[in-house]
Design goal:
By secondary structure, the protein is an all-alpha fold. It has eight helices and no strands. The protein is elongated and about 50 Å long. This is DUF2214 domain-containing protein.
Length: 154
C-alpha cells in the first residue's frame, strides 16, 4: 500500500499540484465550491423531508435540489482524489481521513437507498424523515471532519 501511495504522490498531477502557484489553490477552490453546492442543496431538502415547509410540494423541490446536490457531489468526487494524491501518504495515515471516507459512503448509501428504493414520492413519511435525519447528520459531519483533516495532525 505504501508503494502505491508513493507512486500517486510522484505522479505528474500530484507534482503539478505541489509546484504550481495556482494548481492546488484552484483544485481546492473547486472542491470547496462542490461542497457548498452539495451541502447547500442537501440541507434544505433534508429539512423538507423532516417536515419543514410542508406547503412547498416535495417533488419539484426535490428535483431542483437533488440536481444541484448531484452536481456538487460530482465536483467533489472529481477534485477530492486530486487533493488526495498531493499528500497521499500523509492523508492515508490519518484516522480522520478514513472516518471521512466512511461517512461519505454512508451518506451516499442513504441517498441511494431512498432514491433507488421507493423514491421520494413512494416512500412513507416516516421513511422520508429517517432518510432526511440521517442525511442531515452525515453531510455536515463530513464537512467538519474534512476541515479537521487539514488542521489536526496525529
Amino acid at each position: 500500500m505504501e508503494a502505491l501511495l508513493l507512486l500517486l504522490e510522484q505522479s505528474s498531477p500530484a507534482q503539478w499540484l505541489r509546484v504550481s502557484r495556482w494548481g492546488y489553490a484552484s483544485i481546492n477552490t473547486l472542491h470547496v465550491l462542490g461542497i457548498t453546492l452539495l451541502v447547500g442543496a442537501i440541507v434544505p431538502l433534508d429539512l423538507r423531508l423532516l417536515g419543514w415547509w410542508r406547503s412547498i410540494s416535495l417533488e419539484p423541490l426535490a428535483r431542483l435540489l437533488q440536481s444541484a446536490a448531484s452536481a456538487g457531489l460530482l465536483l467533489v468526487l472529481a477534485t477530492g482524489p486530486l487533493l488526495f494524491i498531493g499528500r497521499a501518504t500523509e492523508y492515508a495515515g490519518q484516522p480522520l481521513f478514513l472516518v471521512k471516507l466512511g461517512l461519505i459512503a454512508l451518506a451516499i448509501a442513504n441517498a441511494l437507498t431512498l432514491n433507488l428504493g421507493p423514491g421520494l414520492t413512494g416512500a412513507s413519511a416516516l421513511r422520508l424523515r429517517i432518510a432526511g435525519g440521517i442525511s442531515l447528520l452525515l453531510w455536515p459531519a463530513i464537512v467538519v471532519v474534512g476541515r479537521f483533516i487539514g488542521f489536526v495532525a496525529d
